[in-house]
Amino acid sequence: MVEVRPFKGITYNKEKIQTLDKVMSPPYDIISEKMQEKLYNNDPYNFVRLILGKIFSEDSDSNNRYTRAKKSFEDWIQQSILIQSDKEAIYPYRIEYMLKGEKRAMNGFFILLKLDRDYKLVKAHEKTLSKPKADRLNLMRACQANLEPIQLLYIDEKDRLQQAIQDNLSEKPLIDVKGYDTFHHSIWKIDDKRLIKQIKETLDEQVLFIADGHHRYQTAINFAEEMERKTGITDKDAPFNYRMVILANMFDEGLAILPTHRLMKLTVNQDDIIEKLKEFFTIEAIPRKTTNKEYNPIIQTIKDKLETTQDHRFALVFKDTYYILTLKDEASMDELAKEQSKTWRTLDVSILHKIIIEHIMGITQESLEDHVKYTRDDEEAIQFIDDGTFDFSFLMNATKIDELKQIAEAGEHMPQKSTYFLPKMLSGLVMYKMDF
Question: Are residues 144 and 175 in the same domain?
Answer without folding.
Answer: yes
